[in-house]
Amino acid sequence: MALLHSSLCSCCALFLLAFTLLQAPRVYGRETESRYVVGVRSLLPSSVCSSPRDSNPSMMKVVHRHGPCSPLTPGRKPANIKLLNQDQARVNWLQRQISIASNGTRASLATTIPANSGGSIGTGNYVVSVGFGTPKKDFTVIFDTGSDITWIQCQPCSDGNCYSQQQPLFDPSQSSTYSNISCSSPSCMKLDSPDCSAGRCRYEVEYGDNSQSMGFFGSDTLTLTPSDVLPNFLFGCGDQNEGLFGRAAGLLGLGRRPVSLVSQSSPKYGGVFSYCLPSTSSSTGYLTLGSGPLSNIQFTPMQTVSDSPSFYFLDLVAIQVGGKQLQISPTVFSNAGTLLDSGTVISRLPPSAYAALRLAFHQQMTRYKMAPALSILDTCYDFTGYDTVSVPTVALMFGGGTTLNVDFSGILYVPNVSQACLAFAPNGDAKDFGIIGNAQQKRFNVVYDIANRRIGFGANGCN
Ligand SMILES: *[C@@H]1O[C@H](CO)[C@@H](O)[C@H](O)[C@H]1NC(C)=O
Ligand SMILES: *[C@@H]1O[C@H](CO)[C@@H](O)[C@H](O)[C@H]1NC(C)=O
Ligand SMILES: *[C@@H]1O[C@H](CO)[C@@H](O)[C@H](O)[C@H]1NC(C)=O
């Protein structure tokens, strides 16, 4: 059973909805190097999608799963507390995977959340649309850097074995380019623990909660954009799927193992992909194989944890608040390690690093009244009655001299103006690895260059 996980996202819905900064650029700026000034009204959600006119046809469009730009019909908006609890469930699951892999030396699970409170998939916030087969059929899928296999729900699927999705199920018998994969095929051996049924290779992937997908492993043409067409792409044709996938048709796996999209396409794209996550759910970003725009990218070394070969690690070395570096020993970060994840929403820090961040942030926010904590977020402010607010900048510094100046949309999680919370959380144990979540990645061109073992960040990536 493959222990993968996925997620990207579900939690950010309101988070992103809460920001309409791209639509209101004039009320959003840096007062100085050390503070952002933001119009409070721009914190309120927008229900209208504003897609850039000149969106690049050679890139997949990334949208928030629950926002007005999503092709998926809106379901009931999940409550913020539920979204944040799901985010914690994903983190618990990720940390458990890695602690199992590294033999239990990191045993603690920072859990204030009941273990059965939900899934790691449910936090999958971002989706893209891709085409399978010939003629091509388009499907909206979750994309996830924390798992490897790509799968979509397929026919035939017995009653109740597939969840209900937006688009009709993919029918391989209607595609002239679909191939079955036999159990003896080398392609089948790319799976962690392949199964065999009547001579045909089967995959199985289980995510953090009860979410899972099983089915036949097959190959077909994958059309990402008109110019990015991958023949004979290996993917799962799910016939038993359940979990928190919403109405998405499946999942695009962007991990590092041989079966992932990045690995399969590396002869063509050199083992590089990049994305930009939009700052709001009413705007769009992109996902592209290859590096995307390379202007002003700063790179930091990509670290590998040999027991956890799917995951992308990097070296967080310091944090700045309001332009001043916090007094945190670098060993606090290096002892724990740091994972870059597209599917965790809120970044997680070693407890002492978080305490230093919270203290420095709060000392620069004393003009605002505090508001109650929200799930895992314990540092919240009430902006009622203000036209604009001024918030200290936050920067994450990585090995190699790379600095990520967190966008304003990644500093506060704002369900409403009376409760705007610092969008970071502590781990329960100093040995748990930290996570750079998707909130803090927003508006950066994030480049995963596996071939050269480096990760890049470029500001203003979505423009
Ligand atoms: C796991 O770690 C424990 C002690 O920490 C050790 O006794 C055990 O042999 C290790 N197991 C494996 C499979 O490495
Ligand atoms: C794949 O296998 C199924 C079941 O044996 C069969 O019905 C189908 O025609 C095969 N598809 C192809 C393209 O060979
Ligand atoms: C703001 O959001 C919080 C958490 O979702 C909620 O408890 C509170 O009632 C909301 N306040 C208003 C004024 O909507």
UniProtKB/TrEMBL annotation:
The active site is at D144, D341. One of its GO terms (biological process) is proteolysis. Belongs to the peptidase A1 family. It comes from the Eukaryota. PROSITE patterns: ASP_PROTEASE, PEPTIDASE_A1. Keywords: Aspartyl protease, Disulfide bond, Hydrolase, Protease, Signal. Residues 126-458 form the Peptidase A1 domain. The keyword Mitochondrion does not apply. Coiled coil: none annotated. This is Aspartyl protease family protein At5g10770-like. The keyword Disulfide bond applies. GO terms for molecular function: aspartic-type endopeptidase activity.
